[in-house]
What does this fold into?
Amino acid sequence: MIAIISDIHSNIQALKAVLKEIDGVDEIWSLGDLVGYGPNPNEVIETLKNKLSISLAGNHDKGAIGKIDMSDLTMDAAQAISFTEKELSPENKRYLEELPTLKTNKRFTLAHGAPGKNEWEYILSYESALYNFDQYETAWCFVGHTHIPAVFSKKAPHILVPEEDKAIKLDPT
It folds into this structure.
């Protein structure tokens, strides 16, 4: 079983609770934003570094290492990124620097935001998801960024909102 996590945002307490819930899974994949907003960016990275099979960079991760235009962010996000940038150890900055924003294998596309040209787009509607379906060729695409769990499908009913504390089982084909 694979656990997919995203948008930890330097919240070590929430991360520890999630890790307790998913203890025993075969792999953990992170869709980005390990840092930002919360007060513990180094602790989150140190906790996850060796646990993640796949780790992507989100917009807050890229912002904390000076790789995105801060003028595109809300004031709260810019302040959080500025705080995080000052807090991060040089080693953890290097770790974030090495993370890709997109990963693809034969079956999955993984992205923090949208898998297309606008990588920080929020996919919040079926219409947005449908547009982005054309941006990848794999059977499945997983994205974070929105802080809202949902599964969009080309088949009816098109949107599935998972129940709390329930795993979503996907056909591996």
